[in-house]
Amino acid sequence: xxLTEVKKVTNSKLTDPVDSSPxxxxxxxxxxxxxxxxxxxxxxxxxxxxxxxxxxxxxFHEAVERIGRRWTxxxxxxxxxxxxxxxxxxxxxxxxxxxxxxERLKELETEAxxxxxxxxxxxxxxxxRLSEKGRALSPVLDSITTWAHRWKA
Length: 153
What we know:
Elements: H1 3-13, H2 22-28, H3 31-34, H4 58-67, H5 72-80, H6 86-92, H7 98-110, E1 114-118, E2 126-130, H8 132-135, H9 138-151
Antiparallel strand pairs: 1-2
């Protein structure tokens, strides 16, 4: 199916754009599961398994909101580079306040993106380590870095 055919089929299902009937939600709410991938990729050819949907995927939106919060991407990026102690993370991110760094580290721990380990030494030392879920963000942040360098103003 070509991109034009998918658009025609999608548009034919949306006769009333404000209609939020359960049938539309069922048809488009989980676009990845219900719509077939385009043959040969999307028009740009950059995403071979791209699926078109007129509704924003909730899972996508939650993920973008989670890693898109102010300073969160920077924290994960410096941790991917090896920073594991609070002072190392803070020192690698110019402009971040202690309060905001502490808040973001707690959020990332709650989301299981990182773990917090306290040593039994005197004085105790705290180490932050990316979980498998956190390390899986590496290609995402690499792509954002590539995009940022290519399109910087």
